[in-house]
């Protein structure tokens, strides 16, 4: 009986130790799991620190075909930035105002590596987006031109894009990651670094203002023509003028010079088309394609000539050698019949310019 009791106690103690061991192991696993979860959550809940946008010609897809470089004498017209040390790699200027917005010039002497600019000088311009009235939708377009002064040539190396750059709340910085190789820039013999560590950068920022005035030019064909019968032609010695006529929506006067004009004087009959008064604005030019004809009254071939001219400061155009006196006086040719001459002017095309406003 006593042995059975000791055996029962031994079994109970062993079972108790087994339970305690299992509980301990489970608790350690649970603690590790909770700790891991806490650590994971801590990593996930780390506060987000907004990093400065190290921007990006990448986003703009600047291609070599759109990039224009060269040397120019004229200094920057918007902002100049002189540096007297190259110990620091990255610089940014104070804000400067253009087009009602604040801008900052960023200079990377050893290149913006985050934009693929390693080994090059990188230059960017940043807009202060707090100036946007409606930051979600507002856009600002700007022409950018960057400068690096060359002391040897007394000129500025310039780089620009043929397109304008679009700035908005999500794209606040644009520029070039590869402006000039660092080796070229830092070699004093090339003239970009002078007086030890001095150098000069610049930028032009131009914010285009949408146009308020415009004009549209067009040319339309026409079949308008005017036929003029001139009697007793051989008795005329001075220029003769037709009545005011309407062709292509404008008023004109046809002029015939029986004795010729200019280089045709004394040898040819000359004919001109004159724009009547108040038919154009003071600054307007009207393009006209005109056919002048001396009609053959025997139904043979007409004598004709075409002119294409701009009516503006010069308001009369014509042909000085339209038909010779010899052909006119030869009755067999059919141009002068019963001392009557028939001429015609046809307006084949005329321009129209619409001005806004």
From TrEMBL:
Alphabetically ordered keywords of this record: Signal
Cited CDD domains: MATH
SUPFAM superfamilies: TRAF domain-like
InterPro entries: MATH/TRAF_dom (IPR002083), TRAF-like (IPR008974)
Signal is among the record's keywords: yes
Secretion signal span: 1-27
Limits of the MATH domain: 76-205, 223-347
Pfam families: MATH_2 (PF22486)
PANTHER family to which the protein is assigned, alphabetical: MATH DOMAIN-CONTAINING PROTEIN, TRAF-LIKE FAMILY PROTEIN
Name recorded for this polypeptide: MATH domain-containing protein
Organism: Brassica napus
